[in-house]
Amino acid sequence: MASKICQSKSDLTKRDFRAMIFILLKLQKTRVEIYESLQEHFPDLAPFLSTVERWYREFIHGNFVLEDAPRSGRPNISHNEENVNEMLDLITKDLHITYA
Question: Could you state one GO biological process linked to this protein (predicted)?
Fold first, then answer.
C-alpha cells in the first residue's frame, strides 16, 4: 500500500516519527542525537525524549512494527451504522428520547 506524501509538517503522524527514529538509528545516531534532530526540524511536533528512547529500545530489541499495538478496552469509535440506525429508530418511536 502506497502512502501519501505529506503536504505539510503538520501532516506527520506517530508512524512517520517512528520511521524517522528507525532510520536515524540505522545511521548509528544515539537516542539524544535522534531527539535533538527531530526537535531541530519539527520543534512543535517532535516526540518527547522518553518516547524516542522507548522506540529506540523497541527497534534495538527487534520490534520493527511502526503502528501502535492493539489495546483492550473500549474502542475509539463507539458508533457505527447499526448503532446509529437503532438510535434513530428509538428517537422516531419516542420523541421524548434525546440523542445527547
Answer: replication fork processing
> Which residue carries 512517520 as its cell?
16
Distance between CA atoms of 46 and 23, rounded to whole angstroms? 15
Strand, coil or helix: 89: helix
pLDDT along the chain (100 residues), means of 10: 54 92 96 96 94 95 86 69 78 73
Query: CA torsion sign, 5 to 3 to 70 to 28?
Result: negative
Among residues 87, 80, 74, 65, the alpha carbon closest in space to that of 21 is found at 65
Which phi-psi region, left, alpha or beta, contains residue 73 (left: φ > 0; alpha: ψ -120 to 50)? left
Distance CA 87, CA 79 (A): 10
pTM for the model stands at 0.63
